[in-house]
Amino acid sequence: MTKKSPAAEAVKAWGRLMRVSRQLVEKTEDALKAGGLPPLAWYDVLHELAEAGEGGLRPFELVDRVLLAQYNVSRLLTRLDVDGLVEKLPVSDDGRGQTVRITPAGRETRRRIWAVYGASIAELMGDKLSAAELEMLAGLLGRLRDPPIGD
Amino acid sequence: MTKKSPAAEAVKAWGRLMRVSRQLVEKTEDALKAGGLPPLAWYDVLHELAEAGEGGLRPFELVDRVLLAQYNVSRLLTRLDVDGLVEKLPVSDDGRGQTVRITPAGRETRRRIWAVYGASIAELMGDKLSAAELEMLAGLLGRLRDPPIGD
DNA sequence: TCCTTATCGATGCAATTGCATCTATATGAA
DNA sequence: TTCATATAGATGCAATTGCATCGATAAGGA
């Protein structure tokens, strides 16, 4: 494995990607704060749990999905539990683990976050590029993903 | 101003952008850590200061360029100063301010970070997309930037 | 069964970040 | 000049994060 120097095009795209992603996150977090809502990470977790339905998810499954470190998930779940947005249930066939399920209050909070988050996406992405361009962007980004995604 | 619901394409592109940017940062930070090197933020600042040359930069100029909060720049500069990578000079025509200049040791550190950072960019972006695709990606991202950049 | 190793989730502690505010200097109007 | 306001940069304190590790249970081989 040889250490390579990156192509100029790669450096340019990298720089744009870093800057844009940080700007978008920052603006969205600001909008959430302005609305007295919790940060994006809470949404991610509530979203995954909502998708998972009544069966809930094990914390380690959440770790895979949301791209947060294990200890961050552990602590975030503690906060969500304290706030009554999720509930932790013992799981029968694995004495180490638990299952985490979203509560009605959690669904409601998720909905309220989405009102702001979704508007932010619409404003920051939807309004800037056409549907075809967004598809193209998603396609290119998909190939940078790990694992890469064709579609 | 009406709250809008985002288009499906926008949501998909958003999701990819968030995931990919976090993955790329994480992998790059890991590579830097593995090499016993300081984090990306250090590179950003050292890079800007290297570009600025002997004249250096005022901290507030750095704040604009690197997309870090003012207090983070202040503290990062303190660390860089302690490590001898930059030097803080009083500035004659503004008693509140200072000028920050990169030192030879700072240039050397920047070079060593780049050896890893650049290789990471080459591997994670350059190897995944063609030059034309990278240009296309940069173009699309440029339009999401604030302010938008055509080229 | 017993022992070693792996996995799940939590946590102590140090470092970093965010927020609010502070000090000091500069600017500009009266 | 004088005072009010704005700007540059630093910092106290609380919250969050990262790192290392822990305790508990599982899994698998001898």
UniProtKB/TrEMBL annotation, chains A, B:
Residues covered by the HTH marR-type domain: 10-146
InterPro entries associated with the record: HTH_MarR-typ, MarR/SlyA-like, WH-like_DNA-bd_sf, WH_DNA-bd_sf
Highest taxon listed in the record's lineage: Bacteria
Name of the featured protein: MarR family winged helix-turn-helix transcriptional regulator
